[in-house]
Structure formats: C-alpha cells, structure tokens
Model the fold of this input.
Amino acid sequence: MTTENMSNTETDVAAHGDAILEVDALDVTFPSDDGSLPAVREVSYALRPGEALGIVGESGSGKSVTSMAIMGLLPKNAQVEGSVRLMGEEILGLPDKAISQVRGKKVAMIFQDPLTSLNPVYTIGFQISEAVLAHNDVGKKKAWERSRELLEVVGIPSPDQRLRQYPHELSGGMRQRVVIAIAMANDPDVIIADEPTTALDVTVQAQVLEALQSARRETGAALVLITHDLGVVAGQVERVAVMYGGRIVESGPVEEVFYRPRMPYALGLLGSLPRLDEDRAERLSPIRGAPPSLMAMPQGCAFAPRCPMARDLCHTEEPGLLRTLDNGDRVPPQPGDAIAHVAACHFSDELSEGIRPENLFRDADADAGTGNAGPVAAPSGADAPAAEAAGSERAERGPVGEPEVLLKAEDLVKNFPIRSKGLLKRKVGDVQAVSGVSLELRERETLALVGESGCGKSTTARLLLNLVRLTSGGVSYMGKPLQGLSDKQMRPLRRDLQIVFQDPFASLDPRMTVADIIAEPMLIHRTRNGGAKKRVKELLELVGLNPEHGSRYPHEFSGGQRQRIGVARALSLNPKVLVLDEPVSALDVSIQAGVINLLEDLQEELGLSYLFVSHDLSVVKHIADRVAVMYLGKIVETATTDQLFEAPAHPYTQALISAIPLPDPVKERTRERIVVTGDVPSPADPPSGCRFRTRCPKFARDLSEPEREKCVQEVPGLLERGSGHRDACHYSEVVELL
Amino acid sequence: MLVYTMRRLVGAIPVLVLASLLTFVMIDVSGDPLAELRMATPAPSEEVIQQEAERLYLDHSMPERYWLWVTGIGGDGNIGLLQGEFGPSTQGQQYEIGPAIAERLWTTLRLVGVAMMLALGLAIIAGAVSAMRQYSKLDYTLTFVGFLCLAMPTFWLAGIVQASGVEFNQLLDVQLFNTIGDGRYSAEGEGPWPQFVNAFAHMALPTLVLMLTSFASWSRYQRTSMLEVLNSDYVRLARAKGLRNKVVIRRHALRTALIPLTTVFALGVAGIIDGTILTETVFQWRGLGDFFITAVENNDSYALMGWLILSGVMVILANLIADLLYGVLDPRIRYE
Done:
C-alpha cells in the first residue's frame, strides 16, 4: 500500500472534471474462423481539453482499431467492451441517431489515405457543406460560405475554384487538407487523426501538419494523433502512448518516453530508427523477430519473445501498466493522474537513464526466428563489439583511390507520351519522367537516389537496368553500352545487374515456394543444374532466414522476411550491382532496421554496389556513400552523404532535410525550418528555367525581381562546388540544418 | 458531351461495317437457301430453281452479293441495308423482311424493356440489401435465389414458369395468366383497362423469366460493388461527419456503387437478346425470337442477316448509352 492510493470518490470527480475523453478498459475482439482475435486489450487513456496525445505503434498494434471503436465505426461483427466517456457521458454502443450527434460535432476524425477518403462523385464543396449541414441546419448557401472559410484556414489557395472541383482534381496533400477542413467544420472538442500524413511526401507532410495545427488553434480541439512515425509524434504532441500487441505498453509525457523509456519495446523502437541527427557510422539495433500475430498472442508479456531482457516471469505473467519509482518500485499511478509516465514491464527499473538501445538489442539482428535467443544479461553498456566493429569498418571505407565505375548514365531522358483519347491516339504531349540525368555508380559503393514521389527516381533506376527503353542518352555497364541491346543480348548482363522491389508482398509469386522463387533466376540462366538446392540454402542462410524454410510459401513469412527473400533472389546469380527500389519503405520500423543491417553486411561481404532508391532521407543518410537528389526528372544536387547532410546547398535539398521530423522532442521543436509551399508541378508541363522555382523558398523570399528573372529564363546546370559536391541552383548557398 | 457522343457514333461505323461483313460471310457460307427447293418432291424444274436463285441474287459472286446487300446498288429495289431494304426472303415473294422485323421488334422490345428495367431495379435493391446485411439469413437467401436463377437454363426456367402459370390458373379457376401467345391483338378496340389486363396477362410470365435470368447476375455484381463501397474510406468518413446511416447509404454508398453496374448492364443486353429467343419460343410469342427461329428453319439468309445486324446495332447502342451514363455518374470520366 502506498500513499498514491487515495479515496476513490474524490478522485472520480476530479477525473471527470478534468478529462474530455476517457477511454476505460477498452477491449475489441474480432470473431474469425480461427477463434476470436483480440485486436485491442484493456486500453485506457484520458484526454484533457486542448491536449495532444500521440499513439504510436507498428502495424497490427491496434492503434487504429482503438480509435475506430471510440467513433463506433468498426464493422458490426467487432465485439467492443469497456467504456468511452465524452465529457462524462458514455458514447460506446449508442444508437445511430445518438452517435451521429457525437461524430463530427464533438469528435471528428481524419483518416490515413487522402486519395480514398473523399467520395469521387461529389464536389469538394458538397462534401464539406455536407459536414456543416449534418449538425447545423443553416441552409446550403451559408454552408458553402463556411466551407470556403474552412479551406482558407487549412491553407488551400483559390478556395472558390476548389469548392467546385472533384477530389480527383486535387493532389494528395490538398485532399488531406480538405479532410482536415471537414474535421474542423463543427468545432469539435476532439480530433482523432489516424496516420494523417503517412501516405504523403515529407514536404507535403510538413504542410499538412501545419494545417492540422491551424485546425487545432481555430477550434481548440484536443488531438489524438495516431502514427507509426516517432518523428511526427516528437514534434506534435505533449503526451504519447506506445501500443504493442493491442495494449498500451508505455505512456507518459513525450520527453519522458523519448529520453527515459521504461519499456524495452519503446527503447528498441528508438534504436531501430535510422536518424538524421546522428552519426551514420552507428549500426542500427533492430528488434529481433516480428510483432505478434493476433491469432497466436504469446502468454505473458506480448513483447517477451522479442525482448532481450525477458525472463521466466515475462513469459507467464502480463505486466501491469505501472509507474516506476526512483527506488525501483512499481506502483499504480495516482487515480486521476492521466499524465503519469507508466510502463508495462516487470523489469522497468532496470532501464535506467543512459541505457542505449544498441547495448540492449545488440544481438537481435536476425529476423529469421531461427531461435538464437541472445544473451539476457543486464546491459553493462561496455561491450558492443559487433556494432563497433561494423561501425569502424564503415568509417574506414572512405575514398580509397578511385574505384572502378560500374554503371554510368549520361544525360538519360525518358518521356512517356500522352495520347489523345480518340481512335487515332495522336500524341498530344510528353510526361517528362526523366530529363537529363547523369550519374556514376562505382564499385562497392552505395549511391542513393532521393526524391519525392513522381520525381523520376524509380524510372531512372529502371532505365539503368534497361528495363525501360530510353528516349535518349546512354547507359553503360563496365564500359559496354546497354541502350539498344535486345532482350536476348541483355540477358547475360542481367546476371550482374539485379533489382529488389519495394513491395515484398507483390514481388513474390504467392504460388511458388520460396526455394523455387530464389532458384528461378538460376534456372533462367542455367547456372546451376545440380547445385541449385544447395545454393538456395546458402542464400537463405546468408539473408538470415532458416535454410529449412525453403519449401514454405511467401504468405507464411512476415514483411521483413519476405524482403529478405527478395534480396536472396536478387543475389542468387552473384550480381555486382543491386538496384534497391525503396527496399524498406513498406516495412515496420523495428523490422526495417534488420533489413538495412543485412544490406550493409552483404555489401561488405560480397563487395556489391547498390543503387538505393528512396524517399526517406534518414535511411539514405544511414546507408549511402553518395547521394543524388532528384526533383521533377532532374538531379538538383549530388554529393557525398556527409557533404550533403552537413552542407546542403540546393534549396530543395534543404527543404527536404528540414521537413523530416526528428524523433527527438526537444530538437524537433526548436529546429529551424525551411518550408516549401504547394505541390510538385505536373511533369507533363514543368516550369521553365529552374523547375523548382515555383515552390522555392529562396525564390519566393530572398531573391530580387531581376534575380528571379534568371531562375525563370535559364535552366541551372549541375555545377561543381568542389570535391564532387554539385548542385543545380543559380543562387545556391550552403546552410547548416542539423 | 455532345462532341463525345458524335465521336462515339462515328466510331461505331467501322464496328458496324465489320459486323455486317462477318454476319454476311458467316450466314452466306453456312447453308444453301435453295436447299429445300432442290429437295422438294416432286423435284422442281431446273428453270424454277434458276429463277429462284436469280430472285435471291445467288447468281452473283459473294463479294458482289455483300455489296448488294449493304448498298442495294444494282439490285431490284428490294435489297440494300442503306436503303432500308433487307433483301428477298425464301419464305415467298410476298414476305417482306423489313416490315416483318419492324412489327416484331415492338413485341420484343416491350418484353425486353420491361424485363430489363425490373431486373435492374430489383438487382440494385437486392444487391444493396445483401451487402448491407452481409452474411445474414437474408443475404444467404438472396444469394441462393441468385445462384439458382444463374444456374437454370432459360428454356427450363421458362418451362417451369409456364407450367406454374397453368397450375396457378387452375388453382384460382380464373385465367389470370395467358401462358401462350403475345396477345397483341386480343384486346384491340377495348378500353384502356381491359387492354392493360390483357397485356399484363400475356406479359407477366415471360417477363418474369427474362427478368430472373438478368437479375441473377446483376444482383451479384451490385452486391460486390456495394460491399466494396461500404468498406471504403469515404463511406467511413461520411459516417465520421455525423451523417445518419440512411443518408450515408443512399448518398455515398448506393450512388457510387451504381457506377460499375452500367458496364455490366450494357454487356447484359447481348445476353438478353439470347434469352428472348428461348423465352419467346416457349411462350409462343411472335417476336424477334420467333422471327429468328423461323428464318433458320427456312434457310432465310437475308432474314437472318437482318436479325443479326439489328442485334448488333442494339448491342452497340446499349454500350454507347452505358458509356454516356458513366460520364454522368462518374465525374472522373472526362469526355472532351
């Protein structure tokens, strides 16, 4: 018994008066053929007026289901138990009429995918007015007026015109702002945003988060921000709850959770994140294994099978969500104290300040589930030989002479024709996907191609492999030109040039066994008639999978494991060059780190060269030796990774770096930002002169009229700044951002 | 929209030309219009056969005959689609194909039109209800009925419906349904009410048959499409706005779920033409289906070709209407 347990009557009143939304012991179960699936278990939290609460978790952690349950939006077969009180009144299980009064008016919601959240057959104006009219019978005209105001608040230019347009005429970022406008239409008390920026590019994400902040300022609403992105959470919320396996496993003020996590999972998540603000030589510390399946929840703590600290107790008894006192005692938080830092770990006292994730998770590298449980000893903080060794090797691998150029692209151009719809299919224009890209990929090097969606980075990668026909320009592999080669002539070269695709679910044939998938390239090239089986086993082992699992089918593997299968297939012919097209962007954070480490190890071991296509600058900073930043089909800046991140010169690079949220609450809130406005222009009709000028903050703010003239008239060349650092801006200057 | 419609109409011309060519060639090679005459007993004289061959333009070569059939240039004024003539018939000199088709077209259109409208309406309702109550008893029942109708061949279904009609009449001891004939002329000159009763008595059963065959597949499509929409993000957002359930269903779900049905509907027109042949035969209607059967029995090439071209035109028109409907229903489709 501790002093924290005070009399119940008193605190109950206090709790009601304080919180606007109280979720109490919420359970959600989905019945299925394989038994009932516990999607959410005992989730409780309280939200005070105007407060911002972040809910963080990986896919399947139950974070979205929780919010759907609160809104009563789950399918009918979901069994919801517990209590959700809005200003003291129960809203769980209300009939249609009553819950309709709550939705939109008191609690509004924003969904993940802006491309599908709006009905394609109604205008923007109709859909916003509809939200207004649902709760205020003010008449169509007034509702339209209000819609116009709302669009202005969320920062959509020329709102009158936008109101009459249909969703497909707006970009993703715009559409998400429309959804935000709908959410704030009736001055709600709570806004629940479910991964509101996950589907968006970073520069657009920054704009949408800004719109979300305006919406909160305008309405004074409390915010529940659900996301998997620790960086977004760090910058946007005051309190954070971490979900795992359907439960909240840690919750508290954001600084507490980020700087002094009391649950190994939270620590592990932070450690598996490649960070923009950290030295890239440091090896990532992935969490072993994969998140639990709802069908087979482990006994005891759901995280125990992946936890390096797990002991017998963890496998038998589920820990409660408790405060950890300075003396190591675990006690329940004071009733009504919604902001206490609590964690669900039996041994939270062992996670004292100063414990680094790499110490705790150092041996957790294999995602294979082959059963190397790793030593469980309490972290001493001194011995991390594997990580350090890898780190120093990496650092040594600087500029050693001039390695051979393997792939070379000169002035690559790819235009996709736009054809008229009639019978004749006349060509009416070109989408300029790639317009004059030159680059070199050297031996044993990782070159990253970075840019937002639609910048032409994937097309460039495919051009380099001759998977797409060039419009003009030239590609050569070890001096041999590839353009114009027929498929047959190209085939022997394909052994050296392999590719790993983004989506590990779509890139493996679900009807082939893993062994067949990996052996297929060898079959095509007739390289191993007898030894294929042995080679498949070798490869499976090489990528950290159990070699005995070759007879399984892809659906039996998790996302991270599938991506490893994709890598194994690409390696089966002993290639020299691997093109990695967003290889980790479809994976959860804790899994992504394992694949990144694998790629680094393979490069060391096999002497591979990587062309790493990505939109994620943090990952790129971690893995790449050199970086080329693309915008609208052109390279705007290229440099070594250190140069680029320490001294970015092009305004677009600066904006990209500054738009990436850092998973560090203090840094994220205090850093300087360079914000770009608007959306990427259509590649069918790029701006004259510098293609970035329409969104360029420098162009908009710093340049004089005659200076701007040059940006409009002259296409900037990709010019050398010294030591291989080049940028394509007439007025580039280096800015330090990190 | 107008420009688009015109363009589509112009675009239909090559399709029609190709259809006419295929129709002509396939019918022309598939039988001898004079076969019956040659086999007749007593055997007609060579001269009679020759005369008949000349009347049917069989003395011309195949390409010439095609040209004649389409344009009528060089014919006796009884041939040439472009002149509105369908050609001479084997069923006697007095038998004119054009007027015969026109007369039967009305009979058939009445049947097809009503059946399609009913099938569409019912399919939309049944599909939507099925989707909203997925895995309920109602859903399972509707699914069962749907698959039952899908699985039953039209002629059999027609036979059952006809037999049931007879039973029903006997049971009530009133001639509620006419199980035979189209009854076009049986109430002529009477007041509107008897005319309506007469039309209903004749049409009810064959319409039911034709309706059920189309309803079955359309309701399945509507169910799938509705399910997809009900699980979509924008329906969820509509609910999250605070709209009442019935508004969400009507305005956001049903409205959007109708879009894919237009294509299925257009494709269904061809199927329903098939269906009429069988249904009309069973119920002994003198419609286009009966016309087709008679033409086949008589080796009446020009009549068959006329029928086929007419069906072709109907299918093309139905597709055009579906495309235009698409444009109205879905703002993402642009007709510039």
Summary: The radius of gyration of chain B is 24 Å. Residues 291 and 297 of chain B are 10 Å apart (CA to CA). Chain B has a mean pLDDT of 87. Chain B touches chain A through 25 residues (CB under 8 Å).
